[in-house]
Amino acid sequence: MFEAADALLLARLQFAFTVSFHFIFPAFSIGLASYLAVLEGLWLKTGKALYLDMFRFWVKIFAIAFAMGVVSGIVMSYQFGTNWAVFSDRAGPVIGPLMAYEVLTAFFLEAGFLGVMLFGMEKVGRKLHFTATCMVAAGTFVSAFWILSVNSWMQTPVGHEMGANGQFLPGPSWAEIIFNPSFPYRLVHTVTAAYLTTAFVVGAVGAWHLLKNRDNPHARKMFSMAMWMAALVAPVQIFLGDLHGLNTLEHQPAKVMAMEGHFQSHPEGAPLILFGIPDQDAQTVRHALEIPKASSLILKHDLNAPLDGLDTIAREDQPPVAVVFWSFRIMVALGFAMLAIGLWSLIARFKGKLYDWRWLHRAALVMGPSGFVAVIAGWVTTEVGRQPWVVYGLLRTEDAVSPLGAPAVGASLLAFVLVYTACFSVGTWYILRLMSKTPHPHETGIEGEMDAPIRTAGITPGPTQNPGGRSMPPREE
Q1: What is the dihedral of CA 209, 31, 417, 370, to 10 degrees?
Q2: Which of 110, 374, 398, 464 has a CB 3.0–4.6 Å from the CB of 139, allowing a cystine?
Q3: pLDDT tier for residue 221 given thresholds of 50, 70 and 90
Q4: Confidence check: pLDDT of 466 > 80
Q5: Where are the domains of the chain?
Q6: Residue 374 burial (CB < 10 Å; 0-12/13-18/19+)?
Q7: pLDDT by residue (tens digit) across 376-398?
Q8: pLDDT tens, position by position, 63-104
Q9: CA pair distance 85, 79, nearest whole angstrom
Q10: How far apart are CA 149 and CA 152, in angstroms?
């Protein structure tokens, strides 16, 4: 069924599909791990059981999201060797060590402390357990650090040398490779996006339970904390996005041209095209709704600043404009919608109506998935905007693919779609089921869901035997 298909397109679709599925879970777990550390820290500081209940409510959700993120992430490294063998061979000397450091630092850190965090509340001291929670949160950040360093080097490759066999070889300074020109901007923008994603999920859950019972103290605290995060971080994220865009304009101008829909150069100030239909064949945006010279003001901080267009880029080097144009607008629109919710919550808080305004709660509930949509749209903008390069300006995507036939790639793509849809749909359903349960006092964590560790043989443990042979009842939580 894939005989007439393009193997390169199928390989790109497969990578896009699996990365999109994977990206959803780290975008949630990075922020949720930090939120759990904050909740446990507040519990230790104040002694209020409310924070412990909230920690136990969210730690079960974190465990599932973290597990699905790890499982879906493993697939990515295999795809480098299957569908992108040429890329692996050419760029492996540079990106291989960076990905290995992600395993040696972040993954080992998370693996070492995750068990204590999930199952050790009643088995270790409070300070040690809090340390474990903080280490897991730090591990999620370190993981993002290395992965985004790899991606950023592919966007702005520096610090390497070209070997005689065409390989990218690390130069004398690894710091130049790791801290490449786009990395600091991409790191802070992505991690902040993860925090906002978590904030709106927590806010949506709090809003859901407030709509059912506005007097629930756990729902009130969830919603309040989430709305503080939205109000304070959303404007910061918009500012960071602007800085990231200016950095992209400097190092990847064709991507910004596609984002803005600028097919023609504008020597006396470029318009900001709000909406339109990009026509790459005709090199124009049809039915454009635009604000004169506003793009020059945003990108150059000067109304009359000249901006180059895609007419300065060879056709074969232009990214797919329509995809980048619309994914960028989706991301920006959701960013401003988050800002609006944050400002709305500040007004409600000032008026003492934060827990009473039902339309605010409904809006927060609708905005629950907005962070996931925004990060996927941002990823599409970044990756599609880099095309036709896999290592920007140095290695074309069509030259990096493995010499596989379309049927082989298509079959694996179909298998991924079926397996991912089945497995992750069940996991997502279970997470939503946990979120729908009303948070209450004396909430049980993962430890409270079982009387003893589950054995891999599937045998349910019997009553505990004391040294004298008498059966002992399970320990009360």
Answers
A1: 60
A2: 110
A3: very high
A4: no
A5: 228-394
A6: buried
A7: 999 999 999 999 999 999 999 99
A8: 998 888 888 877 777 788 888 889 989 998 999 899 888 888
A9: 8
A10: 5
Report CA-CA distances (Å) from 250 to 181, 254, 343: 10, 10, 32
> Other C-beta atoms within 10 Å of 6: how many?
14
- Alpha-carbon distance 115 to 119, whole Å? 6
Q: Is the pLDDT of residue 465 over 70?
A: no
Structure tokens belonging to residue 16:
């896009």
